[in-house]
Amino acid sequence: MTMIAVLGNGRVGGNLAKALTLSGHEVTVVDREPGAAAAAAQTARIVINATPGVGSLERLTALREELRGKILVDVSNATIDGPDGLPGDLMYPGSSLAEQLQQALPETRVVKTLNTMLFPVMTAPAALDQPPTVFLSGQDPEAKQDVRGLLIDLGWQQEWITDLGGIETARATEAAILFVPHVIRSSGFAPFAISIAR
Q: Where are the alpha helices (DSSP H) in 1-140?
């Protein structure tokens, strides 16, 4: 059992919190109540960023002390919305939210994952007709191993998990968000994920 704090209680955060609780972890979900994020981050071993990517850097930088030495699992994408409210462009072109977080929080072990799919797939990957791929990006091998364990608890099989390497590889997976509006317009809001076929 791992003590996990989920920052963000929307569809993504709520979905992850429920699934991780069912798999036996002790999970605290944090909303916007002042001081709640700091208190939860301080007691957790793993903190999951499921807050809207546009404000994540500022929000998490304010928790620098509480996040010191912790694993920060970043599942958000920082985008600029188009006129229809769907992602239209990247907020950090030539970089990524995960890289910005790691730079701002050098004593926190940032791992990027679960950001190349619609949120229902995060906790039910086997529900898709073909196996999806989930990616890991991060500087710390032990942190990535711990996050791999969480992914397995969420229903991801080992062969569906691909470690891309350092945190700089997150800019590739974050760019995949630009597929999302086009796929939704083409096929509707049905669960899908990026998959590497071999």
A: 11-22, 36-43, 53-61, 97-104, 119-123
Q: What is the CATH number of domain 3-187?
A: 3.40.50.720
Q: Report residue 161 CA to chain centroid gap.
A: 14
CA distances from 178 to 11, 93, 94, 194 (A): 20, 12, 14, 12
Closest CA to 131 of 196, 75, 187, 177: 196
All structural domains of the chain with their residue ranges: 3-187
- Tens of pLDDT along the chain (198 residues) come to 789 999 999 999 999 999 999 999 999 999 877 789 999 999 999 999 999 999 999 999 999 999 999 999 999 999 998 888 888 899 999 999 999 999 999 999 999 999 999 999 999 999 999 999 999 999 999 999 999 999 999 999 999 999 999 999 999 999 999 998 899 889 888 999 999 988
* pTM of this structure: 0.96
**Which ranges in 5-69 belong to alpha helices (H)?**
11-22, 36-43, 53-61
Backbone angles phi, psi at 112, to 5 degrees: -95, 135
